[in-house]
């Protein structure tokens, strides 16, 4: 049976859970006082940091589920996203409107392929 690796474990969540060569994690802005453009930019940078932590990168993203507090912010999200995703490496993606915690305008749920130990 494959081991489950948990990084950044707290009583409520783990920062990353890795199983069968797939990392699962969630990102919200570290500084929710910023507008949607600032929060999306933060999250994209945080994703890169989290991927590097597990030996992966944004070309290995498998799926991203994006929750926006207001779907009217989708054009800003898409502008930043399109500039960030490497050509030819776009993951599957869904974007929906959702009620988020106060101050948070964006939340992303991600899966990414990671190297497996041999």
Class by helix and strand content?
A: alpha+beta
- Side by side, the strands of the main sheet go 1-2-3-6-4-5
What is the end-to-end distance? 15 Å
Low-confidence stretches: none
Rg for CA atoms: 14 Å
Beta-strand proportion: 25-35%
Tell me what you see in this structure.
With 118 residues, this protein is an alpha+beta fold. The protein has one domain (4-113): RutC-like (60s Ribosomal Protein L30, Chain: A, 2-Layer Sandwich), CATH 3.30.1330.40. Helices cover 25% and strands 35% of the residues. It contains two helices and six strands. A six-stranded mixed β-sheet has the order 1-2-3-6-4-5, covered by helices on one side. Helix 1 (36-53) runs parallel beside helix 2 (74-84).
Give a brief description.
The chain has about 120 residues and is of the alpha+beta class.
Give the helix/strand layout.
Elements: E1 4-9, E2 14-19, E3 22-28, H1 36-53, E4 61-68, H2 74-84, E5 92-97, E6 106-113
Parallel strand pairs: 4-5
Antiparallel strand pairs: 1-2, 2-3, 3-6, 4-6
Helix pairs in contact: 1-2
Key descriptive features of the protein:
118 residues, alpha+beta, 60s Ribosomal Protein L30, Chain: A, 6-stranded mixed sheet, 2 helices, globular
């Amino acid at each position: 049976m494959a081991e489950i690796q948990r990084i950044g474990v707290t009583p409520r969540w783990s920062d990353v859970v890795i199983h069968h060569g797939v990392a699962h994690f969630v990102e919200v802005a570290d500084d929710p006082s910023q507008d949607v453009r600032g929060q999306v930019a933060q999250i994209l940078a945080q994703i890169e940091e989290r991927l590097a932590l597990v030996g992966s990168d944004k070309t290995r993203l498998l799926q991203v589920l994006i929750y926006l507090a207001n779907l009217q912010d989708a054009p800003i999200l898409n502008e930043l996203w399109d500039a960030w995703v490497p050509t030819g490496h776009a993951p599957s993606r869904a974007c929906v409107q959702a009620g988020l915690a106060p101050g948070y305008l964006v939340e992303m749920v991600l899966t990414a392929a990671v190297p497996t130990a041999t």
